[in-house]
Design brief:
This protein is mainly alpha-helical. The protein has a single domain (3-185), classed as Up-down Bundle (Fumarate Reductase Cytochrome B subunit), CATH 1.20.950. Helices cover 69% and strands 3% of the residues. The protein has helices at 3-15, 22-44, 50-79, 91-121, 142-177; strands at residues 126-128, 131-133. Strands 1-2 form a two-stranded antiparallel ribbon. The chain is elongated, with a radius of gyration of 19 Å.
Length: 192
Amino acid sequence: MDDRTSFDAATRVVAGDDAYDRISIGLHWATALLVFVNFALAVTWDWFAKPAKQLMEQTHMSLGVLLTAALVARLVWRWLPGHAVSSLEAGWMRLAAQATHYLLYTLLVAEAVLGFAFRWGAGRPMAFFGTGLPPLIGEIAKPLRRDLREIHEWIGWTIVILALLHAAAALYHHYVLKDRVLVRMLPRRWAR
């Protein structure tokens, strides 16, 4: 970071203009909502009769496609110049925040890849709101598909646990440290 960029970032923080832009905020909350709805569907569909379970599984896949699109949009947006917001944390908190973000992004990408690989590896299209996205890979042996599904489930649990820890850290910043970490990611009308 050069002096001009450092000065610009410091000026924005002092002025209270260090919030994320609307697109970043929207993609963040869309990602969170899609993760938790998809997780809830996956952990509860075995409680229901076959027609409801199938609908829940198809909804899970459809929302998974949307989550993948939101994740790609989020990564592209973040990498475009001018959309990264500097961290308010310092020292170990900054490292922990960065590590958590990178780990969440990595796990979300892995989760998406495994979801598509599991479905397409069975030679079936990925459900997407009544249509199907045709397989882009060949069939995979059933034992490997079972392993992919199990890893997909474990990663899902890991993502949810990390997301909850991420939310707890944001609440800690807001209520204990009384800084702007949480407020920066809230829509403007809620951040006041």
